[in-house]
Input
Amino acid sequence: MHPDIWRAFQRLRTLRSAAPPLVTHPRAETSPVSFQQERLWYLDQANPGGSAYHLPVAFRLSGPLDWRALRLTLEALEHRHEALRTSFGSSRGEVVQYVRAPGAFVFPTVSLRDEVSTLEEREIAMRAALQQEAWRAFDLQRDMLFRAVLFVLDAQEHVLMLCVHRIICDDESLDVLFRDLSELYAAFQQGLDSPLPMREVHCSDHARWQRAWLRGPCREELRAYWREQLKERLQGPRLTSRPRRGNTSAARTRQQERLPLRFPPELSRAVLQFSREARATVHMVLLAAFHLLLHRYSGGQEQHFVCSPIANRPQAETEHLVGYFVNLLVLPADLRKDPTFQQLLEQVREVVVGALPHQDLPVQLLDGIDLGGEPLSQVLFAFENTPRHPFQLANLRITPLELEGGTCDFDLFLALHEEDGVISGTLKYSRDCFAREEASRLLADFETVLRQALKTPQTVASTFLPERGRHEPSGSRGSAQALARACRRAPLPPPVDVLTALGVATPEQRRSLMTDYLRDTVTQVVLRGQEPDVPIHSLQELALDSLRLIELTGRIRGELSVDMPVSRFFDAMNVEVLADELIARWLRARMPEPRIPPLHRRREHLTP
Output
């Protein structure tokens, strides 16, 4: 563990040492909810029927499935974890939870073998039914908030979908579910009893513990820290793509989409190495780069905040519980003095290390703090490097299935994780704020910002802003497409082939090859590989911003070993002139260094 993080958790342990013990309480008809659950309850009441807090997962099961063992597994799982049998309501103005007695688990099975004849048609029908079931509304007061549906495609091919409402299950809880499912299924398949003991402590016990603890002096100590940390008026990033319509209460109409992200191996290695050399965590490095990206996309907004979800399981007993424990940490950034990336990283380190020991204060208790009227979940950032427990069932090959659609209560949510030295993740975004191409551009910009920051950490934040008078990223896309849709050709051959072709070509052929190379490179960087259909006349007409130019020069330098200053892209009157410049630089790079004969003269030694 990083020393700063270790010290932060030592401080957290000291703060928690004054808390009462977590004990089992006698079961009553109703019991209080945690502050985190209370927040989701009110959000659901403001937006009934929404799917922003659904947590669906789906898996293809290939092989001999034991349906009876799977049904017994789900039933035992529901008996083991009270949260899966919980519903919510209001009593005397207080949000309360009801825990149902254990009973038979309702496990519907949908057979698609009789409805459609071909495997392809079954696949299409399954996808449609899967999407519908995944986002079917929950009624927190009446419904079971843990669902499972099995789709039968063939005797050896099934799809299992599990869906829970986040008010009873967070992402950490999925690991608990998957681990228990694997052990229970293996036992029931062999005709054995459950190998897992029943839990002694449950989420309702934790809720009572939390409310008792936060009635004491600890609550004021936590509040005092956050008041000081967030004493200035804060705002979420004013992203320049589109104005956001509505707020958190309008989440039902805010459609969610997602894009995968996987860093190239060399970039992942660079992040890990830089974090070690800077004595920072990978989370801190990535968050600092994300702040720069938001600074850019907000048009240079100097102060903003993002929120980062944290597991917030304060006792060892809660580590193996299914429930909703997540809290949001408000992480501000201040770029008013145009800090370098290194300085911003130090600022992020102080913010994160200070926030971790004070993570136990639920966000709705942050009274007296002005967040500019913005929802806490406007922009979210998460990073984890703890491997997830895979979903496994004995004698079956398991393939996760992606689920599209749903709604969200945020503009952007960048969730990253590192495993085996590779950084990957997902960008979730609201379609009200971003088109898919704009979200793709944002991800590409994040990589470019990160590369540049790691390469030159003394670069100031303003360097990453768009050129003055030029379009923002979302606007430059339109002008680039209008002016750079050129020559529909096959993709350019790999760089090594281009270098070989340039080496054997005549001067006239070189100019044509370099012009084609330049157009293809601009198309790949500016339009992200989209087919252009209008000739590129001049890069000046593309309204390229500085970030695009940094990426262009980096690509050319890496592929052709040609160092092209950024200014030359604007100075060149047309593509052909720029191609001539590239050829001249390429030829100079190939020429051997001139050998200067030594001068036979007496050396003069200068003394101070």
Remarks:
- The longest helix spans residues 436-455.
- The radius of gyration is 29 Å.
